Amino acid sequence: MDDLDHRSLGPRLDLWHIQEDAPGMVFWHPRGHALYRVLENFIRGKMRRLGYAEVRTPQLLPLDLWMQSGHWEKFGAQMFALGEGERAMALKPMSCPCHVQIFNRNLRSWRELPLRYAEFGSCHRDEPSGALHGLMRTRGFEQDDAHVFCRADDVAGEVARFAALLSEVYAAFGFDAPEVSLSTRPQLRAGSDASWDWAEQALAEAARSCGLSYAIQPGEGAFYGPKLEFALRDRLGRSWQCGTVQLDSVLPERLGASYVAAHGARATPVLIHHAVLGSIGRFIAMLLEHHAGALPFWLSPDQVAVVPITRDQLDDALKLRELLFSAELRAVLSADGETLSRRIVAAHAASIPVVAVVGAREAAQGTVSLRERDGTTSVLTWDRAVSTLRERNRPPRGSVDRACGPDLD
Asked: Positive or negative CA dihedral for 126, 129, 131, 132?
């Protein structure tokens, strides 16, 4: 296995592991979970500013719901089911039917639309053992699911908002503009030909209106609607499908979703499904391989290793770490019995971007020596060091085309 394969990088950097007796299930270690939360909170902030309300839905649901939605017919062989008869249940493979249940709990007016829900939804799929591949393909995973309940006239604007969100997020992670594909109706599908004609045309027009060029992927749409798929190329030129936006007029009707239209009658909303990262674990695998394990400062699970030269500077090192904590920086203390050089080497081997060395002279002068991955050093006062590092702890703003939607910051 290549040393820069995420399956090697993850355990070596103490991020996660998978056991033989739990195939396809990920054990996230403290450092890996810290990285996981950085991604999650980054997306959470973007979604909140765009008007998405975050929800949380059950993982175990009645089998009847999945039969009604059509997921059991399409994905039943990949779903974990248990119980029989009225107690038959299944773990959710995706969150969309759950969001419809929330929508259906109240009588909705057209004035409430578009109504946007977001969830970091835990999903399970019984993938064949031969298909499992580190974080790339697992049986338990979490997606940044989002669903928009809207009217047909809202579709173009909502797709534009999503395209702008993708551009902003992918640029922040260091990727170039994604390659876009339009996946059209599969052979086995739900809904009438007329509904598919409308959905494919509406999605294509929405993509073109915000300047997206796309290739056609015949027959690769979801069973309930067409989708735009966004693929990223990593530093090795490999293409990874990440974001999707899907246009659906099938599930709302099957699951009884409706709202009171302006003319007073009931109408069925259009449902837009989308995800920016897709599986968060899979996206972490991509990031690790794309950056060869050396994640940018703002993404690194541990950003600063505070290293006292001797035990005499331990109290000062602890105070510096507390200052870094107060500035919302992720800092660790390295004060074990190893030599200074070995502790610095260990910090860089763990891909910690900055080593903050505190010696007797630094302690006396109120300074700290910052050592970067590339070997460069700088000596700064504590306040200056903290403010400089805090400034680096911001996702970069990429140069993106904002014609598709609002400035997300």
From this structure: positive
Task: Please indicate whether residue 147 is annotated as part of the active site.
Answer: yes
Distance CA 316, CA 303 (A): 19
Tens of pLDDT along 307-357?
A: 999 988 999 999 999 999 999 999 999 988 789 999 999 999 999 999 999
Does the active-site annotation cover 2?
no
- Phi, psi angle pair for 149, to nearest 5°: -95, 120
pLDDT at residue 87 in the model? 87
Instruction: Check if 92 is active-site.
Output: no
Q: Provide the whole-model pTM.
A: 0.92
Q: Catalytic site residue 145? A: yes
For helices 280-290 and 30-49, angle between their N-to-C axes, nearest 10 degrees: 110
Active site residue 227: yes
Q: Active site residue: 7, 46, 137, 147, which one?
A: 147
Going along the chain from its start, the domains and CATH numbers come out as: 6-293 (3.30.930.10), 304-392 (3.40.50.800)
Q: Is the pLDDT of residue 405 over 60?
A: no
